[in-house]
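Convert to structure. Protein one:
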Amino acid sequence: MRRHRTVQSTSRPATVSVGVGLVSRETPSVESALERAREACEVAKHRGRDQTQISLGEDDSRLARELETNWAERLREAIAQDRLVFYVQPIVPIAALSQNMAASMLEPSWSPNEAMARTQFFELLVRLRDPRGDLISPSVFIPLAERFGLMPEIDLWIVARALRHLGALSRNGVLSSFAVNLSSQTLSDVDTLRRIEELVREGHAAPGQLVFELTETSQLSRLNDVRRVMLALRALGCRFALDDFGTGFSSFTHLRHLPVDFVKIDGSFVEGMVSTELDHKLVSSITGMARALKLRVIAEHVDGPATLAALRGCGVEFAQGHFLGKPRPLEKTHFARLLAVG
């Protein structure tokens, strides 16, 4: 949930992480529930921005079992019933944008504008539709899926349908690329990774149209295994991006050992680079290092023309953010009709 607040006459984006302490008949006291909520909030903040964490104490074991059983069943049903919904957000080549581009040219419409007309690279995002038709944010259901070990199943579903959609677009003359996130659970699941490799080999789309994003802050405990799988997929033509670069202690370890093609600079640095000299220097340094390693650079959370101009000056090649296009349901994009006839 992104909001803007004004600090010393400067508008800065703010994000919210939520910690929840459940209260039941077994909860010993109000103080206990508040302490659980505080601890959950700390966990949510450490996991990244816009996160939700639910804390269940030992005294609430019955409630915990009921909640877990309910949500595990809901998630499995959603996967089985294809109730995961794709959203897309453009990743725009900065060189394709005029230097005097105004915000009015970019929003609110995704009908032909300079950014969309020249963009065929999108991050593929996912929402969950409940049986009533309401959409559930990934900040809610992804932590639960991780808790129940369901992320490999969800990632497999996403990759299979992403390849199918890319194939349909290709058959209709549109050569697009989708960036797809892979969770740390999936990267540690040999069987799921093998199945993903099989899906790529089946040939629904050119492997080069798929860019797998690895979150830099995730714990890649089996680094050598992950590297072997990445090399196998890269041999087929797939590409990889290291997401949230700069936010974790293992940034340079991952960059050194993993065969990535893109570096995505964490949005917290990008958002502050216009008003903060340190953030500007960090973005410039990361870009210079990445380009020296022959990697391409994507900047996240681009929020206005001044940020876009600063990124251009640093040599960043791609930009992503609400200024260039908010996430939109795939079914409501300009190429949705092609998917239906593909």
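Protein two, convert as well:
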Amino acid sequence: MHCEPGQILVTRGVTNGLGLLAAALLRPGDRVGVEEPGYPAARAVFAAHGARVVPCRADEHGLVTGELPAGLRLVYTTPAHQYPLGGRLPVPRRQSLIAWARATGALIVEDDYDSEFRYDVAPLPALFGLDPDVVVHLGTTAKTLTPAMGVGWLAARDDLARLITAARRDIGDRTSEAAQHALLAVLRDGDLDRHVRRMRREYARRRAAVVAALGDLAGPARLLGDTAGLHVVLELPAGTAAEVAAAAARRGVEVTTTERYFAGPPTMDGLMLGYGGTSLSQVSRGCQTIRQVVAALPAARPPGPGRPRGSAGPAVSQPG
């Protein structure tokens, strides 16, 4: 990405950036697309500003750009590692999304979720880098450093950056100056780059432990989104995720089902398995417990109607 300093706003994180964007650009009743399944906080932010949230289907590769509806003011997407299914939006879909925005006049809101952590795959171009005129780019230090820092960023073309800055001034929104100086220090000294490289290696080991424990489960159970990020989804036979989560909790392993990430009726059943806040040994033990619970399920149950087929411990990673 290449942009001028005046195009960048320092925020408190992705949800703060979404709130500023909504305050500056949305009017009550505007239609806003959000990935389905997708980030619940994004839906909540847009709804709180009076927008009509429109679910837009995501599959194992990310947002299904060929099915985007007409009449959207903007669409929110997580192309680096779709939240929650874990897909990395392929280049042809990125190009299709840019062309759609150009043709319809809609704005793309790119949440750069998990772009720093990828495994065995090359980086893909940011949507903002492909066309900064139709993309607003959001990022955060919540995953690279800590959510407690409360610093993120928003990049937009000049006129949008001015509008968002004015809206921010009107509502008195601020980002901690002390936190900004702390982040500046680790950027200047190169500490952030060194930290990300070190943690990428550590997270890769944890990811490998998840795949080793759960990657060869028999039947319809399978992992999605294991090429990037700090979580995977374990897709399960329809109607079994809550049962598996409850059984795992009784054995001391807390996991979340994918149901809460759907605005409408869920079209798949699975578990969110986050490994960002757990040690390698905890990840291994937790995944072995889940494997035992899944292996004890009755013989494979038929998948639910319309259930897509795709390839996604304890704490679940979330966008900032």
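DSSP finds nine helices and twelve strands in the chain. The mean pLDDT is 91.
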